[in-house]
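Q: For a teaching session next week I want to show students how multiple molecules come together into a single three-dimensional assembly. I've collected the sequence lines for a complex. Could you give me the predicted C-alpha cells for the whole thing so I can convert them for display?
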Amino acid sequence: MKIVAAKKILQANDQLAEENRGRLNDAGVFCVNVVGSPGAGKTTLLEALFAALKGRLRPAVIEGDIAGSIDAERIEKLGVPVVQINTQGACHLDAAMIAAAAEGFDFDAIDLLMIENVGNLVCTAGFDLGEHLRIVVLGTSEGDDKAAKYPAIFQGSHALLITKADLMPHTNFDAERITADMKRLAPEAAAFQVAALKGDGVAAVADWLVGKCRTNATGH
Amino acid sequence: MKIVAAKKILQANDQLAEENRGRLNDAGVFCVNVVGSPGAGKTTLLEALFAALKGRLRPAVIEGDIAGSIDAERIEKLGVPVVQINTQGACHLDAAMIAAAAEGFDFDAIDLLMIENVGNLVCTAGFDLGEHLRIVVLGTSEGDDKAAKYPAIFQGSHALLITKADLMPHTNFDAERITADMKRLAPEAAAFQVAALKGDGVAAVADWLVGKCRTNATGH
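A: Of course. Below is the structure for the complete assembly, covering every listed component.
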C-alpha cells in the first residue's frame, strides 16, 4: 500500500514537472537543477557562475532549504532575482514547490533559472522539477567514492561538477576514479573541475551553460 | 492521511528503537549513531577512533549505505566486526534495520557498537535507532552555516565532531560560528575538532567515548 502511494506521488510530481517544463519553454527560460551534499559548494558555484555569465545570460535562482534564507541572501547581494523555498523539514524540492516559487519571477526578464536543491545526495534524485538539465556538484573534500555509494543521483545528471579543486592537493581525492565511475553511470555527462572561490574553471562551465541554453532555444 | 501514516511509522520505529536499546543494555553494549553528510569523514573517523581505542573497548560497526560495501570493507581490514546494511535507495537507517543487523554480532565480544548512518544531514534526524548517543560529524570543508541550515540533526545530537580540521586554513570555515549555533541548538552537547587522517584530536574523542561507556555501564 505504501508503495502505491509513493508511486502516485511520483506520478503526480512527473506530471507537474512536465507542466513546469512546458511553461519554461514557452517563456524561453532555460532551467538547471543543481544537486549535491550539504556544503558541496552549490551557492558558491552560483555566485562565481553569475559573475562569469554577466552580459550573456540573465539569471534567476530558486533556493531550496530546510530552514532560513542564508543562501537567498547571498544571491540577492549579487542583484540576481531569487525566491527562497523553506521545505520545513522536507529533504528535497518537488515540482509543486517549483511551480509556486516560479510565480515570483518575471519570466520576460530571465534567460536562465538555476534551482539550488536541498543539500541531499539521496532524496533529490527521484524528483524531476521540470528542469532541462541536472548538475551534480561534488567537493573534492567529500571523497572520490561518492558516485559508487550514491549512484542514482549521478546516473540521472547531465554534468558532474567537481568543486573545491584547490583543496585536492590536501586530500586523498582521485579525480580519475570519480570520473570513471561517472562515465559508467552517465556516459553522456559533461565533467568539470572548478575552484569557485578563486574563479578557476568557472568560465568553462559558463560557456557550456550558454551553449546548452542556445541549443534549447533553437531546438538543435 | 499521509501524516497519520508517517506518525504510525515513527511510533513503530520508536518502539523498536526502545527494544534495541533494552537489548543493548542487557548485553552491556554501548551504542553510538554517527550521522553526517556524504563525505563528512565518518568512516575515516571510525578508523582513527578504533586505533585510539585499542585495548580499551572492543568495537563493532554497522555500516549503512544505499549501495555497495566500500565502507564495510575498510572497517573489516581493521579486524573489527562489521555488518553492512544496503538500504537500496532508502535515505536513512531505521530501528528495524538495526535489529536485523545486530543479529550478526556476538554481543559478548563487544563493548561499543558504532552505527555509521547513510550520508544524509536531513532524513537521519527523525529516526531513533536505539543508540545511547548520537554524534553529528561535519567537515570544515562543508561550511560553518550547516547547523543554521539543517537544525534538526544538530539539535538532537550529543556531540558535534568537526572533522578535516587540517583543511580549515584552506577554507573560510569559522569554528566559532558553528560552535555558537550548536550551543544554541544543543546546549549540553560536547564539541571536538579532529583531523582524523593525521590522528589529531582523536584521543580526546576516544577518552570521551570511554567515559560515556563507563557511565552507562555503571548507571551514573
